[in-house]
Amino acid sequence: MNRADAPSRHLGILKHSLFWPVTVLIVMLLANVIFTRDFLAIRIEQGHLYGSLIDILLFGAPLILVALGMTMVIATGGVDLSVGATVAISGALACDLIAKGHGLPVAIGAAIGASLLLGLWNGLLVTRLGIQPIIATLILMVAGRGIAQLITGGQIITINNQGYKLIGGGYWLGLPFAIILVAVALVVTVVLTRRTALGLLIESVGGNAQASRLAGIRSSGLIVLAYVFCGLCAGVAGLMISSNTLSADGNNAGLWIELDAILAVVLGGTALTGGRFSLAGTVLGALIIQTLDTTIYTAGIPPRTTLVFSAAVVTIVCLLQSPAFRARFTRKRPERPADPVSTGPKQEVTA
Amino acid sequence: MAAPVLEMEGISKGFPGVQALQDVSFRLFPGEVHGLMGENGAGKSTLIKVLTGVHTADAGLVTIDDVDTLIRGPLHAQRLGISTVYQEVNLCPNLSVAENIFIGREPRRFGRIDWKQINRRATELLARLGLDLDVTAQLGSCSLAVQQLIAIVRAVDLKAKVLILDEPTSSLDRGEVARLFSVMRRLKADGVAILFVSHFLEQIYEICDRVTVLRNGGLVGEYPIGELSRLDLVAKMTGQELTALEELDEASPDVVKGERLLALEGVGRTGAIDPVDLDLHAGEVVGFAGLLGSGRSELARLIFGADSADTGVIRTGGGPVALKGPRAAIDQGIAFCPEDRKGDGLIMDLTVEENIILALQVSRGWLKPLSQRKREELVGSYIKALRIHPPHPYALVKNLSGGNQQKVLLARWLITRPKLLILDEPTRGIDIGAKTEIQKLVVSLAGDGMGVVFISAELEEVLRISHKIEVLRDRRLVAELDNDGTLTPEHILQTIANGAADS
Amino acid sequence: MTTAADVLRRSPVTPNRRHIPVFVTLGLLLLTFSIGSVRYENFGTPQVFLDLFIDNAFLIVVAIGMTFVILTGGIDLSVGSVVALSGMLCAIGTSKLQLPAPLVILFVLLVGTGFGAAMGYMITAFQVQPFITTLAGMFLARGVCLTLSENQISIENGFFDAVALNSLRLPGGNRLSWGAVTALIAVAVAIYVLQWTRLGRNVYAVGGSEQSAMLMGLPAGRTKIQVYAISGFCSALGGVLFALYTLSGDPTHAVGMELDAIAAVVIGGTVLTGGSGYLIGSVLGVLVLGVIKTILSFDGTLSSWWTRIAIGVLLFGFIALQRLIGARRKSRRSAPS
Ligand SMILES: Nc1ncnc2c1ncn2[C@@H]1O[C@H](COP(=O)(O)OP(=O)(O)OP(=O)(O)O)[C@@H](O)[C@H]1O
Ligand SMILES: [Mg+2]
């Protein structure tokens, strides 16, 4: 038996599972070069980095962040539909406080605090009341938008605060601050889940909750933690979005970001049923979605057909990732001595 | 002899990294019971799954009634007259017992499913195997052994010409096995060909006409059972000459009874087990014996806090403790290896290593991850000690053979080094060699001062390693026997019968 | 709360435990309705109750399809877009192309069914996760809507007008629209299919354990394709009813309806992981959402954001009560060992 190559096979599969998302991303980036010749170029102006690639990272930053939080929730076997509402509330709260003359720390602190509370609320509904995650977070998805509009009074609040602008639209050390923020969040998440046993415990709870309980895992704590973390990510993303435009729109900020985030997670190879998760995959998924948006824009696809185009791309990515689909084209038919011209007649079966 | 009803020739099947079957041939004649033997991971279940179309063979040929056949899937196999009980119970936990027996071929009246008839016939069929249960109950609420019997009932009632039973007896006790065998004999007399997998040699010798032996994915040979001694059979399976199969039978060791670890006073739970008084000591192996439904697993679950008790108190050395849930029990040094490895035990999508270190990691807390080196060392040593195959830590548990999965689960709890280890059917589906190793390990752990609770449907095994045997019946503890070396399985069965007379 | 649960559990006519969520939902629905009747004038009339069916006929039909899908453990996000697409096709077919209405409706139902079956095929044959497949379906259907027309198209067709403007007269001067009648018929058919046909039982089996269903020799793959086809059909039918209700087709109709449908199914006691739940529960779920909306419209004083908050609060109150009453003590495996 072939035992020696098994560990390397494992690594091979790990690489493999991200192979197709990476390929798709690269192909999409290259396709953009057709429409914009200097698409891949990165320039330095006044000590700041500029370029389409930087833009993709910058515009994609909130989505990556939300998707990171979503990954943890999905890994526990749940889902969080309320992230869009949290994005709106956090932005609205911060802008409202700034508009009312409070300092930046107060505004940001309040927004983050509120997001944590919203995450906690979701987590408690799921663990304490045992409500199915999709419906537990739907409550906040519906009500949260109302709360955001309540904060903004149904208006779009605009502010003028250059300090606040830094979060989502400013530069630091030559890089957009939002990108740095996302990178830090990613590193922290990776360290927390992979350098400690947290990731293992979460995957275990998502993989088989009953068995995890018998192994001594107190899953409620972990699940609440995942929702709180997801709320936090959404809150920071909300700050980014509102800071980028220096305005808060309770109605439209973060609209449908929950679907994009879930899509990013799934494109990255994490199953919605919970268990194994891949943070790198999620980041890739989010970048694919952002690049798709950019491509639609640069390729000049008319707005009315963009959705059809998105559908096509999503379908292609999924099919490429599906081993069953690839097998259609690559697998040789199993060698069977029993093909039509062999011994005895074929058995007639209605299947 | 008549023509074979089924022939497999030159079957090969590889999975990434493992060649599960290599050029295996196999024949099955009408009216015979054919044993398929081999160690854990030898390829028995894979051969069966190739036969029923779950896996597509890489090479090879299947002939049914002299007709070359490409079997496209379980549904197709069923239509061809092959009916199968797979190793892991594969029924739908959310459906009723009756529906699980009839789904896919429900009797209909005026075009609609006739529920009355389904329930009536299911009751009859189960009664034939001596089971009296509410057929409208959800399957998931039944114990593993009952589920296994239900799967058998379903397969038998399909009236196929080939019946495949992959380790159907792994969690059955004597009575059920006897009833199953009588059903099998009846089918055999009707000319049905039966493929039977079991790790119990006695059962093989009792029921089989011929055996086919697999080793490491290769075919060793096909033998009439009468021409093969037990020692020969084991030697063929393991590839090693084994001189003393009996060596382990004398393992019953001396008791070095230590401090009292746990005292149960009137601990019970309505519908699961009546209040029980029980003392568990360090260094002592306590066996729970009882028939199906006697409450032996339920009692174990109460001790661990997997289910909460309605009545009674549990005391440790320090005084009464509230064992609210598994975590509290683990913190008290209690470990519990559950019977249902698929549902209650393993995380199928994780690797062998992750599954093994899980409980240890949990008790250390998430902030203190085991170092890479420590993990490799621990996991590596248990892979070797329990002969987990394939022997590398990064294999996904779902890809392991049934017996090897069981070993992984066992390893998880052994490495936690608990004060009290509760093992519910720890050797279910494990081959003879590894089983002996595990029994020795348990005995030596007790020798080192660990308290052990050992539950098994196999009375011989309980007798072999326990110092004290708690006999249960009808959800009550009916007797406590000292295993002084003179006890026999018959004694225990007698005690159980008397327990009935008492009540 | 515990007392209510205890009464439910111990009463001699204890219903099957699995029916409890449905009964709890029904009880709470009636409770909510009575509270509405006490608070608002003209609320507690039979017609207001019937209006629940009239105003939500399309959602009931869509929720039927969603129930089938969720029972197998899947999800269908495309329903809202397919409803919109069906409405558009109805409008274009009858009013722009001047085709006979029955023909148009037949075509729409075929398109919806085929669309669902195609998604089901992708999910089954290529093992793409349902969420993502149907999300792509949602994009596609909505995109086709926008490509067909960016503006609302009103329906001017004799058949549609006749069906929309007439209704079934009931005793007591009450009325039920033909759309609602269609929805109720669909409910009856669906209940029959789920309970008394092999297809229905296979749906539950696949939801319980797809692997087991396959090994037991059930046509698991075919069943999955069938449920998505059914969901596609129901969405298309829902789209026709929606077109009847609004007498127009609009590319922005029914945005987010998939969430309403999923919410209705889950409120009705069906578990998202599949295998457990009843169709009647989903209908009750739709009615719950309907009652909440009706109460808010009777109130009429709330600004749009307070309405949203109120929906959230009512939804929370409802679900929390449902959980607290329905929650059984975590008793696992107390049955025979
Ligand atoms: N789906 C799979 N993917 C990868 N490897 C597999 C898969 N299924 C089985 N194997 C491997 O094939 C080998 C044979 O497994 P199989 O289940 O046939 O053993 P078995 O003889 O039935 O053992 P047991 O007595 O433990 O049930 C094992 O090494 C197992 O790890
Ligand atoms: Mg096996």
UniProtKB/TrEMBL annotation, chain A:
Q: Does the keyword Transcription apply?
A: no
Q: Does the record bear Transmembrane helix in its keywords?
A: yes
Its membrane topology: Multi-pass membrane protein
Name one matching Pfam family: BPD_transp_2
Transmembrane spans: 18-35, 56-75, 106-126, 138-159, 171-192, 222-241, 253-272, 279-301, 307-325
Q: Which UniProt keywords apply?
A: Cell membrane, Membrane, Sugar transport, Transmembrane, Transmembrane helix, Transport
List, alphabetically, the InterPro entries matched. ABC_transp_permease (IPR001851)
Q: Where in the cell is it found?
A: Cell membrane
Q: Which domain of life is it from?
A: Bacteria
Q: Which GO terms describe its cellular component?
A: plasma membrane
Single GO molecular function: transmembrane transporter activity
**Where in this protein does the record put region Disordered?**
331-351
* Protein name as annotated: Simple sugar transport system permease protein
From TrEMBL, chain B:
Check the UniProt entry and state the signal peptide residues, or none: none
- Please give the Pfam families that the UniProt record associates with this protein: ABC_tran
Q: Classify the main location.
A: membrane
The record's section on InterPro entries has: AAA+_ATPase, ABC_carbohydrate_import_ATPase, ABC_transporter-like_ATP-bd, ABC_transporter-like_CS, P-loop_NTPase
Any idea which UniProt keywords this protein has? ATP-binding, Cell membrane, Membrane, Nucleotide-binding, Repeat, Sugar transport, Translocase, Transport
Keyword Hydrolase found: no
Topology with regard to the membrane?
A: Peripheral membrane protein
Q: Does the keyword Nucleotide-binding apply?
A: yes
**Which residue ranges does the record assign to the ABC transporter domain?**
6-241, 256-499
Return the GO cellular component terms, semicolon-separated: plasma membrane
Q: Where in the cell is it found?
A: Cell membrane
Name a GO molecular-function annotation: ATP hydrolysis activity
Top-level taxon of the source organism: Bacteria
Q: Which PANTHER family match?
A: CARBOHYDRATE TRANSPORT ATP-BINDING PROTEIN MG119-RELATED, GALACTOFURANOSE TRANSPORTER ATP-BINDING PROTEIN YTFR
Query: In its UniProt entry, what is this protein called?
Result: Simple sugar transport system ATP-binding protein
From TrEMBL, chain C:
Q: Name one GO molecular function term.
A: transmembrane transporter activity
Q: Name one GO cellular component term.
A: plasma membrane
Q: What is its main location?
A: membrane
Q: Which CDD domains match?
A: TM_PBP1_transp_AraH_like (cd06579)
Which keywords annotate this record? Answer: Cell membrane, Membrane, Transmembrane, Transmembrane helix
Q: Where are the transmembrane segments?
A: 20-38, 58-91, 103-124, 176-194, 225-247, 259-292, 304-325
Subcellular locations according to the entry? Cell membrane
Does the entry feature the keyword Transmembrane helix, yes or no? yes
Q: Which InterPro entries match?
A: ABC_transp_permease
Q: What is this protein called?
A: Monosaccharide ABC transporter membrane protein, CUT2 family
Q: What is the scientific name of the source organism?
A: Thermomonospora echinospora
Q: What is the lineage of its organism?
A: Bacteria, Bacillati, Actinomycetota, Actinomycetes, Streptosporangiales
